[in-house]
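Slide 14.
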Amino acid sequence: MRGNAAGFMVIHEKDWEKSTPEQRDWLVFNTLQSMNNRLVILEARRAWDKAILFAGGVIGGFAAACGLNWLT
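Slide 15: predicted structure.
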């Protein structure tokens, strides 16, 4: 069993076969909790991403309007 940089626990087949049913249940539970926590974070970011997109649109629209006025 080893971890990686993304925070996921990688379990090899040999480790899974050697683990007890209680350990397997605990690994599945931890995996589901980790996935849930990551999903909550991603869902919370949606509002922030929309706000940034809106601000970028306003800035881009302003720049386009200034560019059109400058060209004419």
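Speaker note: The two ends are 66 Å apart (CA to CA).
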